[in-house]
Amino acid sequence: xxxxxxxxxxxxxxxxxxxxxxxxxxxxxxxxxxxxxxxxxxxxxxxxxxxxxxxxxxxxxxxxxxxxxxxxxxxxxxxxxxxxxxxxxxxxxxxxxxxxxxxxxxxxxxxxxxxxxxxxxxxxxxxxxxxxxxxxxxxxxxxxxxxxxxxxxxxxxxxxxxxxxxxxxxxxxxxxxxxxxxxxxxxxxxxxxxxxxxxxxxxxxxxxxxxxxxxxxxxxxxxxxxxxxxxxxxxxxxxxxxxxxxxxxxxxxxxxxxxxxxxxxxxxxxxxxxxxxxxxxxxxxxxxxxxxxxxxxxxxxxxxxxxxxxxxxxxxxxxxxxxxxxxxxxxxxxxxxxx
Length: 339
Hints:
Elements: E1 2-6, H1 10-24, E2 31-32, H2 37-43, H3 49-57, E3 61-65, H4 73-86, E4 91-97, E5 115-121, E6 131-134, E7 142-145, H5 151-164, E8 168-173, H6 179-192, E9 200-205, H7 206-215, E10 222-225, H8 227-240, E11 248-253, E12 258-263, H9 280-292, H10 296-311, H11 325-337
Parallel strand pairs: 1-2, 1-3, 3-12, 5-10, 8-9, 8-10
Antiparallel strand pairs: 4-5, 4-11, 6-7, 11-12
Helix pairs in contact: 1-9, 1-11, 5-6, 7-8, 9-10, 10-11
């Protein structure tokens, strides 16, 4: 398994996730790779070809974060987006489960029963970087960002969402304003949904979905949507369960079984290096990796251990505890070992 701590907070939380993986007894072997801003500044290369070849060949990639104030956004894009696009990790999974009611910002007790999954198309949409800026930095500047959607990309993410649903799939788009891209999503939705009569299906516009997530997130099971809306709605879902520090994610190619697993909080330069970053997002991402590798019992054990630490407040300050990053990781390990 490839391990990439990356930059900032990633360097602090990934070792805690590896610590937990070793403690759960999954028998995994780890190979760590230095893909970081420090190396980029020294060599001028974000991700060299030999390292990328190793990542392609790995059973899974446990990833921390990339991003550093010393470099521009192209550095991070040259790493994370390249891995997603060239390995065709087309399904981004963002689960949101409320593990302790005290972490919810919602007043309504019933609405706090959050247990949903955002299935986000991960290789298309506005994030492919198509477009340009004409007459840049002048009063006449024109900026164009293309939203690219394909029949194949939309169809396969919709099918994947139905495979993961327990009771319902809610497809989210903005087809009332984005008639071309939304038209493709609507046509594939109308073709795919009836093929899964065992699962309820409904559609919401992206603004309505955001409103409903705040009003009553307990109504949702699986939300499937495009790259941009998936980014926005999954971050909103994370805030409903306690914040970005406990939010995991998986970037998968369900066809090949390859995957990259990462916490979604990013490199967090304002928090990094202070020993206060929450390792739970990275640990739960490692748990998602175990599940993808077929180690379901180990994945369940990791999640249960995390839940116990949160409920006992043996965690970092952002979710009500007083522990450092490393001590919070140790607390999860102790729960795994029954100590």
